[in-house]
Amino acid sequence: MTHAEMFPVSQKDVDAYNRDGVVMLKGVLNDHWLGVLEAGVALDIEEPSARKRDWVNDDANHFFVDAVTVPHNPHFERYMLGSPLGSIAAGMMDLAAACAFYTTIFVRSPGTQSHTPWHQDQTYWCAEGRQALSIWTCLDPVPAGTELEFVRGSHLWDRPLAKPHFAQDHLGGEMDVGDAEFMTVPNFSGADRDRYEFLRWPMDPGDVLVFHGMTVHGGSGDLPAGLWRRSISAQWLGEDARITTRPGGCIPDLLPEFASNGIVVGDHPACAMCPTVTAAI
Ligand SMILES: O=C(O)CCC(=O)C(=O)O
Q: Which residue in 26, 57, 149, 161 could disulfide with 200, CB within 3.0 to 4.6 Å?
């Protein structure tokens, strides 16, 4: 078990997370942790993993993603094991510890307009359970009009949302996974907008968003000229999480890496690639 920096989450924040599926916490990451993240992103740009994808790459927009587990980037390893995130993840899930699943890096070059399609993270993951969340932060300011946006309370919906494509040069649309369980994605940005409540926050570097694995979210584009968006989303699992497969495949597909750590479908994910983190007292 690794001991991370303590960050006491308030009952008010836990209540907001449970009710809304998302909460924003101000000033969680100090300059030290922002420096660690800068180094992690820079290393990933130099030496991406095999999972790196250019979702959009044209004359005006460049938007790429990569997903790395703890053993694959020493900076993100420090971030996952030592920063206040482990304490926040455990606190939100009302647990003493949480498992550091993996880290996603989203990089948009200055002025990129491309949005992240509306989706739920967990329907892509090779892990399922109600104790599952992401902690998103950004190395660059997030001005009003460019925020990541959340459908309030959507983590409590009965049916999962159909899954947009997140593939090389293929962002959005709807994957055909041959499963009637999924509901068609409403037009959240247009005709159906009035039927839902949305949450979003302008943010400064150091602020974080904590959101449930099933909370519907999207947006985060429309960057003004000159503004990068280097965001880092850390995925965390709790005691009820189990390894699973997904119709249409998992993104990222971490099943082979789990298998090489002796973890297979039905197992709890804790292992060397998904270490358990608790907060130092
Ligand atoms: O930063 C973005 O545009 C996407 C973030 C996201 O979808 C996530 O963290 O799950």
A: 149
Pick from 248, 270, 252, 251: nearest CA to 261: 270
What is the pTM assigned to this prediction? Answer: 0.96
CATH class of residue range 2-279: mainly beta
User: Which residues lie closer than 8 Å to 47 by C-beta, 6 or more apart?
Assistant: none
Ligand 1 in contact with 123 (CB < 6 A)?
A: no
Measured from the Cα of 233, ligand 1's closest atom is: 9
Domain boundaries, the chain: 2-279
Q: Give the Å distance between the CA of 219 and the centre of ligand 1.
A: 8
| Tens of pLDDT, residues 97-106 | 999 999 999 9
